[in-house]
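Problem 12. The chain below contains 253 residues. Write out its predicted structure in token notation.
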Amino acid sequence: MNPERLKMILTEVRDGRLSIDVALDVLKGWPAEIIDGAYLDHHRQLRTEVPEVIYGETKTAGQIVEIAKRMLQHGYAVMATRVDAVKAAQVCQDLPELIYHAAARMLVGNHARESEDKGRGVIAVLAAGTSDVPVAEEACLTAICLGHRVERAFDVGVAGIHRLFAYKKLLDDAAVLVVVAGMEGALPSVVAGLVSKPIIAVPTSVGYGTGLGGVAALMGMLNSCAPGVAVVNIDNGFGAGCMAAAINRKEPC
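Solution.
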């Protein structure tokens, strides 16, 4: 249940176009509903402007279908993260209205478009290397689904830092920047030294043995000497997209 859907129901009741009994039937599963394997929080988008999101990595295709089906029926955006291509194909057989974005490893449906701009400005998403793109794309698609404009700058890491300066206008114009990096995680510190905007740093698990699955990048970002850097968990593109959307939102929820 999103604010627009609830307003529509209340308006139709007020205007006599919807009976109270029918409205009650629509709202009977609100604010929460128990289904097989899940307890759906239909009230979440009203509270936070972010609907409940399906973490798909540990769920079966059948579980994702059942949860997504109920979400679609209630009229809010569907986002399922960490879904591999095989599982996504199985889900889309039952729910062809969902779209699979392989780079982001996400299934989405009934989501906002970039033309439905809820933000104060553009969210810039930077990826240090090509190996960081899946996490960066998760951040991009999350922010887009929440109604924000996104621009990308990929493969601009410190191994060839001159590549970053081709995107100087984007850095200057963006309202919020999400900076994704593995290895030693240096890129967010560099970017934070160039702009006055909020920086959301995302460490990735990309790197060799002493990278410790992203811990080295995480520690490097947490210890940044540049001000204005906040850090999310390792590989958490979804969390970064949500935070960027919250910062960029035109009005508080």
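Discussion. The first helix runs from residue 3 to 14. Students who got a different answer should revisit the alignment rule from Section 12.3.
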